[in-house]
Amino acid sequence: MKAVCLSVRSIKKNYENAPLLRDMSFDLHQNETLCLLGPSGSGKSTLLRIIAGLEQADAGQILWQDQDITSLPVEKRNFGLMFQDYALFPHMNVAENIAFGPRMQGWKKQDIAARVDQTLHIVHMEGFATRQVGDLSGGEKQRVALARTIAAKPALLMLDEPLGALDKALRDQLGQELREILKELQLPTIYVTHDQEEAFTVGDSVAVLNFGYILQKGNPEEIYSKPASAWLSGFLGFTNHVEGKITSTDPLKVSTHLGDFELGSHDDRKPKPGEAVTLVLRPESVQPENGAGSSNSITGVIKDSQFRGDGYRLSLLLEDGEIFHFRDLQRRTIGQHIKLKIDPAAILWYGGDERTNYDHQKG
Predict the structure, then answer these.
(1) Tell me, what's the pLDDT at 353?
(2) What is the phi/psi pair of residue 118, to 5°?
(3) pLDDT (tens digit, 9 = 90+) per residue, 266-293?
(4) What is the C-alpha to C-alpha distance for residues 74 and 118, in angstroms, rounded to an integer?
(5) 207-238 confidence digits (pLDDT tens)
(6) CA 36 – CA 47 distance, rounded (Å)
(7) Separation of alpha carbons 208 and 217, rounded Å
(8) Label partner for 308 (CA 20 to 30 A): which of 14, 66, 145, 165?
(9) In degrees rounded to 5, what are phi and psi of residue 140?
(10) pLDDT tens digits, residue range 27-49?
(11) Are 281 and 347 in contact (CB under 8 A)?
(12) 3-class DSSP state for residue 94?
């Protein structure tokens, strides 16, 4: 395990007399890219500004290399922050924008020139040094903003929704490029986004925050495969939720108004017969149920079948009026009555506090 370079401990912050950050804590390791993922208004950017020193927390500590920097002025932290709007200087050309930080730190002219060339190479913008900022595309501005942020060799890199202003195709392309650039830089990085696909592409680890807390932190595979709560599964796009009660624990079986479901393994949790649980039917590829069996199957009417490149997004109108979404390998006929088999491995379950919103849990 790499050494911890940044520790955020119990940060609290109120906004308009209401708690925004209730108890925010996490560690960042050397050369790690940590994505802070959460919906708009969850406090991601505020937390980033507190770490940068642009805002003060109401309580808590920020430690860098085990030293308390909570009250250290922003100019003494040597952290690089890139904003969503890029904040480039329109009256300067590309090279002058990139040189701004080193020049403010008193670097020698020849060192500044060498660093400008180096950072332009890192962001694949060779030949753009004399271009005016106003003549650049959105993607080019994003790269120049990144080059300017890293030019002064910050100890910590912080990116606040760096792809938020771009269209989806460009976000996908630059997200992969950003990951490669960050790997090359070998800098500890905090990357803020509301887009899960972006977070999973760029981050070595992901911390999902909302309601003032870190709800779950882990690598992208852990977050995606085992969301820690029903709310979190919904935020990740798993919206097929159904309430039920446990009828058996070995194997784990749950009875719902849609039928009975067998889940098999239940990891280290201890389900109890009669316990109320929320099932989440992940949208993994489904198969038609041809037999008379009722376990792990649902019945409905095909409302839509949209082509998504690697298959189809199937919208199924259930008998109770709900619409569930699944991935399918073939197009289905609109209006067709169908019974679908759900793989036990595609079913998540949540009991107790895992079923409720986190703000209700914490009070």
Answers:
(1) 81
(2) -65, -45
(3) 677 888 899 999 999 999 878 888 766 6
(4) 26
(5) 999 999 999 999 999 999 999 999 999 999 99
(6) 10
(7) 6
(8) 165
(9) -70, -40
(10) 999 999 999 999 988 999 999 99
(11) yes
(12) helix
Three-state DSSP state, 58: coil
Tokens of 98: 């990139």
Tokens, residue 36: 């802070």
Provide the H-helix boundaries in 105-167.
109-122, 138-151
3-class DSSP assignment, residue 44: helix
Q: Judging by beta carbons within 10 Å of its beta carbon (0-12, 13-18, 19+), is residue 184 exposed, middle or buried?
A: exposed
Using the predicted structure, report yes or no on whether residue 168 has a pLDDT greater than 80: no
Contact 280, 363 (CB under 8 A): no
Torsion of CA 209, 43, 191, 204, to 10 degrees: -10
Query: Which has the closest alpha carbon to 227: 242, 245, 208, 244?
Result: 208
- Residue 81 pLDDT exceeds 80: yes
Q: Is the sign of the CA dihedral 353, 354, 355, 356 positive or negative?
A: positive
Cα separation of 196 and 35, whole Å? 9
- Cα–Cα distance for residue pair 203/33, rounded to 1 Å: 5
Rounded to an integer, what distance in angstroms lies between the CA atom of residue 361 and that of residue 72? 34
* CB proximity list for 223: less than 8 A, separation 6 or greater: 200, 206, 208, 216, 236
CA distance linking residue 149 with residue 147, whole number of Å:
5
Answer whether the bond into residue 251 is a cis peptide, omega within 30°.
yes
Q: Is the pLDDT of residue 363 over 50?
A: no
Cα 120–chain centre separation? 28
Contact 314, 286 (CB under 8 A): yes
Q: Which two tokens mark 83? A: 């904003």
